[in-house]
Amino acid sequence: MQPRLAIAHIHKTAGTTLSGALKAALGGRYCLVTARDPHAPFFDAAELHAMRRVYPRLEVLMGHDIRPWGDLHEAVPGLQYATFLRDPVTRCASHYQYDVQRGRVDLPFEEWIAHEVSPNRQVRHLAGPGASGDDAVALVEERVAFVGLLEHFDASLVMMAARFGLPPLHYVRKWSAPADDIKRRLLDDPSAREMLEAANREDMILYRHVVDEVLPRQEAAYGPALGADVEQFRAEMEGMTLARLQRTPRYAWYVAKWRLAYQPWVDRARAAAADRVPAGR
Rounded to the nearest 5 degrees, what angle is found at the Cα of 183, between the Cα atoms of 200 and 13? Predict the structure, then answer.
């Protein structure tokens, strides 16, 4: 069995929540992947080939290291890419908040936003270093079979499940900021907002294209039942809790396989790679 879907997980686009839904829906046929070489630019075809020994029935993989500008599609016939995007200004503000609250980043926003890894994160993730918004639009049109939007999360999950023949992707929001004060302060401050907008101009080109062109096309392909199906999807999730989600057999299967086999295998390789880095580097 060959994997059929690779999901590029961009920071702060509800990826943790989506991953939880995929665990419950697919169990050991899904894996949240990490490149074993911490210096690798992306999770590549050789990495996928190696992990198939651990996941022979793998159908869907997802991770920050999945990059559509990489080579997975060249090695796996029929493999398709998907991703989720978010309003670039809000996503960037949320990313800074996360880095401060959870990543222990101790940088003023003005320094953080000027760092090369902060601007246009969605474009660079999908289309590679130095890519423009137009480059990312072209790559999405050529290579990404589905683009979900955080602002239309439930509808995106319903459409994605139908598009790829997945079970219903019921979810529970898995991580929320302990407080939204940092993000809100940035978005409400005219000077900070101007910096956010200037730093994400290329992302805005991509985002507007998805909102104006890709989303309507996906909705039309699904058909007129989308609204009713989304309401039914929400009704099915009433009363869903994280504990209930994690008690499902497939979720337990996923956790056992990932914790006992996959993650230790990745950790050993990453430790060995770190030992190979010259001292002082």
Answer: 60
pLDDT, residue 176, reads 66
Instruction: Please name which of 177, 15, 13 lies closest in space to residue 101, comparing C-alpha atoms.
Output: 177
Residue 157: the pLDDT is 98
**Residue 170 covered by a domain:** yes
Residue 189 forms part of a structural domain: no
Residues of the domain holding 126: 5-87+122-178+203-275
Under-70 pLDDT residues of the chain: 175-177, 276-281
Residue with tokens 């290579």: 143
Q: How far apart are CA 15 and CA 21, in angstroms?
A: 10
> What's the pLDDT score for residue 202?
98
pLDDT at 75: 87
- The number of domains in the chain is 1
Tabulate helix, strand, coil % of the chain (nearest 5): 60, 10, 35
pLDDT at 175: 64
- Paired sense of beta strands 60-63 and 30-32, if any: parallel
**Helices vs. strands in the chain: H and E counts, helices first:** 16, 5
> Rounded to whole angstroms, how far apart are CA atoms 29 and 4?
11
Reported as half-sphere exposure (CB side, CA atoms, 13 A), residue 256 has a value of: 9
- Say how far residue 2 (Cα) sits from the centre of its chain: 21
Q: Which tokens in the block code for residue 107?
A: 């940088």
Which residues, 6+ apart, have CB-to-CB distance to 130 below 8 Å?
Answer: 124
The DSSP element (H or E) to which 30 belongs, if any, is: strand 30-32
Predicted model pTM:
0.94
Specify whether the CB–CB gap between 139 and 127 falls below 8 A.
yes
Helix (H, G, I), strand (E, B) or coil at 164: helix
119 by Cβ neighbours in 10 Å (0-12 / 13-18 / 19+) ranks as buried
Residue 68 lies in a domain: yes
**pLDDT the model gives residue 281:** 34
